[in-house]
Amino acid sequence: MHIPSLKEIVSAEEWALRCDLAACYRLVAAYGWSDLVFTHISAKLPESVSGPGEHQFLINPYGLMFDEITASSLVKVDMACNKLHDSPFPVNPAGFVIHSAVHEARPEVQCVLHTHTRAGVAVSAQQCGVLPISQQSTFVLASLAYHEYEGVAFRPEEKPRLQADLGTASFLMLRNHGLLTTGTTIADAFLAMYTFEATCKIQIDAQAGGGALTQVNPQIVSGVAQAMKVQTGGLGGAFAWPALLRKVQREAPGYDS
């Protein structure tokens, strides 16, 4: 499939964001978190690109597998998911409802990443939610919110409830549905999801062992938010991202075309 490059058409700032988002899609595919062509990762363009007061986003072309997505194939949309440039690909307005709700309520968030992984959905279906039984879980519990299932999330009237449930959290567990992370950068949203997914996998594996589970001391959990800032500058996305980009370049080259 030939997709004309946009590198010489868009600004350097937009192109860099496109490359990071395309790499994020490829990484989600590489780690096995994609759900065929479903779910989305959205990235907000800065006002220096979109214009003062404008809200523009990059999102996946609906119908492409995540490992097919390139910087040039990403579609630019507005808050209602209307296409803002010529593209041969459709977009999925219904899939953007959750993302638009988060971006609307949290202007500091650049990236919203949503998955339907087996482990994530499994834990979302457990009444206990995320248990404090691993180091990974303590990072998630430091900024975790829950949103009850209301059916397939394509109804705009669900947005205020989702926004209220999310609040200022970085991690959102959508009950009976999946996982969502936010980040002030694409790198941070990805690393948050890496931690969230690992937390859920560890929990399912630990429960499968059948024995009693040892929980982390609540005082340790309560102190993790500050420890994250001191030790890693948050979740450490900026530290891991260059290595992740090298991984994509080795294993899935072409994302930056």
Largest sheet features: 7 strands, mixed
- Helical content class: 40-55%
Shape: globular
Strand content: 5-15%
Instruction: Give the terminus-to-terminus CA distance.
Output: 12 Å
**What are the secondary-structure elements, in order, as H or E?**
HEHEEHEHHEHEEHHH
Structural class: alpha+beta
User: What would you report as the Rg, rounded to the nearest angstrom?
Assistant: 18 Å
How many DSSP-defined strands? 7
> How confident overall, as mean pLDDT?
93
Low-pLDDT regions: none
Strand order of the largest sheet: 3-2-1-4-7-6-5
Enumerate how many helices there are, as a single number. 9
Keywords:
11% strand; alpha+beta; 9 helices; seven-stranded mixed β-sheet; 42% helix; 257 residues; 7 strands
Structure description:
By secondary structure, the protein is α+β, with helices and mostly antiparallel strands. It is built from nine helices and seven strands, in the order αβαββαβααβαββααα. A seven-stranded mixed beta sheet has the order 3-2-1-4-7-6-5, with helices on both faces. Helix 6 links the parallel strand 5 and strand 6. Helix 3 crosses helix 6, helix 4 crosses helix 7 and helix 5 crosses helix 7. The longest helix is centred in the last third of the chain and has 23 residues.
